[in-house]
Design a protein that fits this description.
about 180 residues; alpha/beta; Rossmann fold; five-stranded parallel sheet; globular; binds shikimate-3-phosphate
């Protein structure tokens, strides 16, 4: 089995679900934002503030290329990672890509009050626009789970059930695409 990659907008639960999923599978868990933080010794907020989004995206691309070479890890991506089709391609080549979806209401309830996401600093309308524009990128996942009304354990169980239902053939096909 290759990697499991979680994609979706900020606040859909990628990191929380990813950690719990990795525990269940006894796989390692990696969060691209954390790796970028380790490599640059800066928080995401600091990279955006000091060097801008372009630098962040370039670090992200390098991290994605590296993680895509590994096997049997659960990867939580950042909300903008798969907006770059090359990132999606690299991740999909060596893994099953799972989309996490959440309504704008759920997202704002979960992370609207936090201060650690530079792209959440705009108006509610601007965030909504970004959410809307990105849906087609997230829709390219192999399958999607709506996390809006679910606990972490419910989301993990649903993912495990969906993965379990995949036949070996499907698994091979999906992970080699
Ligand atoms: C971003 C999402 C963040 C982080 C950065 C940019 C985005 O990750 O990568 O702030 O473009 O949506 P999370 O989705 O984990 O919050």
């Amino acid at each position: 089995m290759r990697n499991i990659v979680l994609v979706g907008f900020m606040g859909t639960g990628k990191s929380t679900v990813g950690k719990r999923l990795a525990q269940s599978l006894e796989w390692d868990f990696v969060d691209t934002d954390c790796v970028i933080g380790e490599v640059t010794s800066l928080s995401v907020t600091e990279i955006f503030r000091r060097h801008g989004e372009t630098r962040f995206r370039s670090e992200e691309r390098i991290v994605v290329a590296r993680l895509s070479q590994q096997d049997q890890i659960v990867i939580a991506t950042g909300g903008g990672t798969v907006v770059d089709p090359l990132n999606l391609e690299a991740l999909a080549q060596n893994g099953i890509v799972i989309g996490l979806h959440a309504s704008m209401e759920a997202i704002l309830r979960r992370i609207g009050h936090k201060n650690d996401r530079p792209l959440l600093k705009g108006t509610k309308e601007a965030i909504e626009k970004l959410w809307f524009e990105r849906q087609e990128c997230y829709a390219q996942a192999d399958f999607t789970v709506d996390t809006s009304q679910k606990t972490i354990d419910e989301v993990v169980s649903e993912i495990l059930a969906r993965l379990g239902r995949m036949t070996d053939n499907e698994f091979t096909r999906v992970s080699k695409n």
